[in-house]
Structure formats: C-alpha cells, structure tokens
Design goal:
The protein has helices at about 75-85, 90-100; strands spanning about 1-5, 10-15, 20-25, 30-35, 40-45, 55-60, 65. The chain is of the alpha+beta class and about 110 residues long.
C-alpha cells in the first residue's frame, strides 16, 4: 500500500498492491474522484509539482501519466479547457494530406 498527498495538498493518492488499483481522494472532504485499475504492479508513482497529474512507473517498464480531474472543482475545468489548446499537432496529418494530393485520379475509359 502506498499513500501520499499531492504537492498542493488538494488530493490523496492511494495505491493498493493487492488489487492493483490507484484511487484519488479529495483532501478537503474525503470524496473519491478516481479509481483506476493498473495493468501491472506499480513501482513508482509521483505527482507533478502542480498536483494536476500523476506519473506512474510499472514493474514491466511502462510509464503512464494520469490527469487528475475533479469534475466538481471549477479551476480543474478551466485548466482542462486551457490545456487542450496546447496539444501538439499531429505530424502525420500533413504527410497524409500530401500523399493523397499526389495520388493520380483513376479515370475509366
């Protein structure tokens, strides 16, 4: 069992080794806001400095990042709307568009 607060002390992270679940609780009222089942045993779990994400390292070498989303917290909703505009553009889309433009059209004669 691993239990710790996020750096902002807004949430408590709880990992149960037996069930391989990560649960997130709001520190203010104890309400559970997330329950995630892990695919492998967790070796390390570290929250980001702003307390809005959790970086999890698994025994099999995989790494996963979870956003901590509190649907009842207005600042979280505003953060997610702002975060969306910072997503990287897909590098594959321009290449796919270029390839479709170069392909000759088939004509039936």
């Amino acid at each position: 069992m691993i239990t710790f607060f996020t750096p902002t002390n807004d949430y408590v992270i709880y990992y149960n080794k037996g069930k391989r679940t990560i649960r997130v609780f709001r520190a203010g009222d104890g309400r559970q806001i997330a329950d995630m089942r892990c695919s492998a045993k967790v070796r390390q779990a570290i929250p980001t400095h702003d307390g809005r994400a959790l970086v999890v390292g698994y025994e099999d070498g995989a790494v996963q990042v979870y956003l901590i989303v509190d649907h009842y917290e207005q600042s979280t909703i505003a953060y997610l709307k702002k975060w969306r505009k910072y997503q990287f553009e897909s590098k594959l889309e321009p290449v796919q568009r270029e390839n479709t433009e170069k392909q000759p059209e088939l004509t039936m004669t």
